[in-house]
Inverse folding.
């Protein structure tokens, strides 16, 4: 499995681009700097779940959605 | 919305109890101490996503599943 920071960063970028917003705009929404957003998208930050929550709020999606990078995962239920 | 650390901790505990394993056993599986697991379950730690990944591996669920605390969230698709 790939590094979770890389997977998370890729997912943030994907959702940001789907909404057609810049890193600066996303940073503004999340109260994070543009550089921090850039670092996260490149997998260079091991963010805490408090920061994860900020991204979810900024992207207006539920938190779990930021970790849904494989459709196949959807079938798992315990 | 409740503090994400509280929600996350409650979810970890819920999934752990559903598998009938102790905090010690979960700690062993995740390579974390029993005390650390206990702190997380009480919402006293702001864990990083690397640690989130350890919990997912220890509980044998996909990462996103640890954040699925509201069934209502499932309807969100962008």
């Amino acid at each position: 499995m790939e590094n979770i920071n890389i997977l998370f960063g890729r997912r943030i970028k994907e959702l940001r681009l789907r909404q057609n917003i810049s890193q600066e705009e996303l940073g503004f929404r999340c109260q994070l700097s543009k550089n921090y957003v850039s670092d996260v998208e490149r997998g260079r930050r091991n963010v805490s779940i408090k920061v994860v929550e900020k991204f979810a709020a900024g992207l207006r999606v539920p938190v779990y959605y930021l970790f849904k990078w494989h459709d196949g995962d959807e079938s798992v239920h315990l």
Remarks:
- The radius of gyration of chain A is 12 Å.
